[in-house]
Amino acid sequence: MAQFKKTNVQVYAKSATVLSPDTIYWKKLGVPTLVKDFGAIDFIDFSPTEPYLFAVTASVRVQIYNPVTKLVVKNITKFQEGAHGGSFRKDGNLLVAGDDLGKVRLFDVSSKSILRFFEGHKAPVHRTFFNADGYHVSSFSDDKTVRYWDIATEKHISTLSNHNDYIRAGCTSPVSPNIIVSGGYDRKINMYDVRTKESVLSLDHGSPVEALIFLPSGGIFISAGGTSINVYDALAGGRKIAQLSQHHKTVTCLQLASDGKRLLSGSLDRHVKIYDVATYQVVHTIDNTNAVLSLGVSKDDNTLVTGMVDGLIGIHRRDLDKDKGDTEKNESRRTRNRRKYESIFQSADEQIYEFKHDKIEQFDRMLKKYEYSKALDNAMVPVVIGKSPEKPVALIKELIRRKGLYRALQKRSHAFLVKFIGFLLRNIGDFRFTSALVDAANILLDVYEDEFDTFAGTEVGKMFVNLSRRLKKEEQLIQDFLQVQGLLEMISVAADANQSSEDLNRENILTDDLEASISAQKHAVINID
């Protein structure tokens, strides 16, 4: 008697993730530690000097955290209204921040005392940055102006007003203390030279500008707004070098990492994208629990902090000591195990392997007895259809091949029909199962077409109506795909025809040139004779 052949259940493996050096590098940041603040996280900035403390601006305060302990070490609360844009100077000793009253305050980080108090803006100041020389501050306000302040005299030197809407983004050149770039909700990006007190460059981003940042060279700056990130060459008159559109919701923040070789962008779609600045390709993506409003990364890349709309701060920390210890521990364990088994194998005269029987699924046992209804019952249990839908699909294919599905579906209870139709509705759109489940749905309709009147008003009747609609939807989808395929074929044929025509013209030109060359050579020979 021939041996029973099990149902061939195809395993649909997921496409393997390519582990690039960037993926391995950034995955070492690990699972973030979540810290709750009182309001949405407006801005995050890292101190450029060790131990790379980071300032989190939220609600009416600026809190300074230690990245190792993840605890607050300084708490600056000298704001009457909401604080915005707290950022460090390049020596890490001073911090500047704006507020909802239009004030700009300069703090000493160690003592938390106010050193300077700049007044002049008539609306909230959302971004403040030190200029490259460290002796001036630039502020960007909702009063549609950019102000340039002198720290020593506590006075503003220039007021720059070329926007028609709120200014929510800005940055200062890392190499020149005189260059400032601002971005507004009027979609405009303006570059100023404070020596001339005028805009030297004006660009249209295409969406309200949310963030701006310079590359370390100072010749290229990047803007974020809407779902796009634009890269501009300032030295070439603002020529757009690249446009990145990897987010599907508004991009809210930009940061540089790896000494300016990597660009990070945060978005309301909960993702942080990491780009290679050389190619502007995404090299890694970090998921977050909620929409990202701000982000910061330490100079050594060992700490990444994201600020979210619900007040959560996600602190990703690369624990180098733990990674090293785990590696040594795993290596020593592997070494011990290898030595142990080597000694066992050397002392053993013969190895006897345990005989294992092939596991046969319960529905295969029923198939072996030609009990098709019971086989279908065993395949439609919640555990199987929930975790391994490929098994019921494989059984359905086998029953169709044996012409036994019609018999297996006859005289079924309402509960089973609801379960079976629900399975069809959930999985019929999966391209792996569509063909088999469409055939199964047609067979089911054939079995019960004379009983539709009895199902009217019941749950089974509603499920049959939904199944009918879904089949029509799949049919329409296939027709749409066939139309697209036809259009693509027409385009391909037209392109081939144009290419053939161009090749023919090129061949004719080459032939004419060759004939002219031969004729010229003949004339030359005659003249020589």
Quickly list its features.
single chain; four-stranded antiparallel sheet; 28 strands; elongated; disordered C terminus; 529 residues
Strand content: 25-35%
Order of strands in the sheet with most strands: 1-28-27-26
Structural class: alpha+beta
Largest sheet: 4 strands, antiparallel
Q: Uncertain segments of ≥5 residues (pLDDT<50)?
A: 521-529
What value does the average pLDDT take? 84
Roughly what percent helix? 25-40%
Query: How many beta-strand segments?
Result: 28
How would you sum up this structure, described in words?
- There is one protein chain.
- By secondary structure, the chain is of the alpha+beta class.
- It is 33% helix and 31% strand.
- It has 10 helices and 28 strands.
- The strands form 7 sheets. A 4-stranded antiparallel beta sheet has the order 1-28-27-26, with no helix packed on it. Strands 2-3-4-5 form a 4-stranded antiparallel beta sheet, with no helix packed on it.
- Strand 11 (136-141) and strand 12 (146-150) form a beta hairpin.
- Helix 3 (362-368) runs antiparallel to helix 4 and helix 8 packs parallel to helix 10.
- The longest helix is centred in the last third of the chain and has 70 residues, at 459-528.
- The chain is elongated.
